[in-house]
Design a protein that fits this description.
α4 packs antiparallel against α5. It is globular, with a radius of gyration of 13 Å. It is built from 5 helices and no strands. The protein has one domain. The longest helix has 26 residues. The protein is an all-alpha fold.
Length: about 100
């Protein structure tokens, strides 16, 4: 599931501490949303995927202006994660789940 990749990468980057943090701050959903997805083995909603992609892109744009290579690498990571969300969103829409 693409959203799990996004969560794990954000956790590795230190941008997320727990699933509840991810649900609220990156997916724009209620605290237990991500936990529910995992427990019920469901795909995220189109709204959650779109929200996550927009927030990742916004953070990437803020960081990419840095002159520090490490910060620029994080910006690139955010961009790649946003693309995961967009790909999952397109797949969901193609299969008429959005």
């Amino acid at each position: 599931m693409a959203i799990e990749i996004v969560y794990e990468e954000l956790r590795k980057l230190g941008s997320v501490k727990a699933g509840s943090d991810f649900s609220e701050n990156w997916l724009g959903m209620q605290e237990g949303y991500y936990r529910g997805l995992r427990n019920k083995r469901r795909d995220p909603s189109a709204k959650a995927l779109a929200t996550c992609a927009v927030r990742l892109k916004r953070h990437a744009r803020m960081l990419e202006v840095s002159t520090f290579p490490q910060v620029q690498r994080i910006a690139n990571s955010y961009d790649m994660l946003a693309e995961h969300c967009v790909s999952a969103l397109l797949t969901a829409c193609e299969s008429r789940r959005c």
